[in-house]
Amino acid sequence: MHDPNFPPDLSIQPSVSSGSPSKENLAFSQDVDIKKYGIAGRIWEAAYTLAVYITPPPVCPTNSNTSNPSSLPLLEFDPPCSLFQDCIRPTTVVEVGSGTGYAGIHVARQLDSLYCRENTCTTDANVIVTDLENVVSLLEKGIKEHGHLTGVSIRLEAHALEWGNPVHADQLARRLKALRRNVTHVLCSDLVYFPHLYPHLMRTLLTLTSPPFCDLSLSLEVIIGYRVRSLTKEIPFWQVFGTWFSFAPVLARRLESEGAGTAWGRFGAANDTHVFVANRRPESYMWSVPTEDSQLMNGFGPSPPRLDDTFESLLLLEIDTDD
Fold first, then answer.
1. Among 2, 188, 197, 246, whose CB has the most other CB atoms within 10 angstroms?
2. Measuring CA to CA, which residue among 239, 155, 224, 228 is closest to residue 189?
3. What's the pLDDT tens digit per position in 171-198?
4. Closest Cα partner for 187 from 125, 235, 129, 136?
């Protein structure tokens, strides 16, 4: 099978954060990693925007002198990132298609910082970064190089999880069972690019948001960073995703003095990036996931089959707002 990380005529360069700086300085050798791992060795742009969202808010959000020494704009999000809403609830994050592991390692670092800040350092959190089997070594390298940034309260590990691979899914399920953990969050960053991979990505997301991976009595959230590159190719994914998941964009506003803020707007709009928060539709647990990729991509599951227009409606709403 052709390695999807090395498509024909691949020509990519290392990325840099532009306009969406995160609060954590993570160092990756993208030039070297791209040569060895192809697409997986590059940090794709949505990860930088996503990292800003998955960072705990400052202790004193209205005091820029003490809480924002870097002079970056303080942002308030709607909805706030649920990763940091409850320091007591056990947290288990699985990142899908992690590549370098930038987003997952960032989450581990931020959770550790929050637990220390809140005096809950004994909290046991798990962050699992995943990708193709031949990319796990890249993830393990990233974990080793950044392990000093996370404390003993965070378990950070890498596993193979090829999209749509039932063997890998079963291995991960067994690992979670051994840890006595359910998935609380699924993290995705810049995964919507090759149409032939959409059904495999959908199957993986449906698997991770179903038992035995999750407890249906608890809320599991999917957090997605997505950068628009080819709408005509990417809309079909969102139509199917919306069939099984309800999702909404993250909004943001810049905080000013004394708690005042600017107008709310879609976070990431300046660089054509979206951050979505998603949950499984409760009724979808009663549906059978089609075994045929063509049926899955044509809205089979519910009866009658249907595709969702949430994403297209959001695009139209933005056009109307701009006008």
1. 188
2. 224
3. 999 999 999 999 999 999 999 999 999 9
4. 129
Helix (H, G, I), strand (E, B), or coil: what is residue 179?
A: helix
Q: Do the bridges between strand 221-227 and strand 92-96 make them parallel or antiparallel, or are there none, so unpaired?
A: unpaired
Q: Where are the alpha helices (DSSP H) in the chain?
A: 30-37, 46-53, 64-67, 102-117, 136-146, 166-179, 198-208, 231-244, 293-297, 310-322
Beta bridge partners of 188: 96, 224
Regions of the chain where pLDDT drops below 70: 1, 18-25, 59-73, 120-123, 257-259, 320-323
Residue with structure tokens 């820029």?
Answer: 64
Q: CATH fold of 30-322, please?
A: Rossmann fold (3.40.50)
Q: Is residue 180 exposed (0-12), middle (13-18) or buried (19+ Cβ within 10 Å)?
A: exposed
- For the chain, what are the domain ranges? 30-322
Spatial contact of 254 and 280, defined as CB atoms under 8 Å apart: no
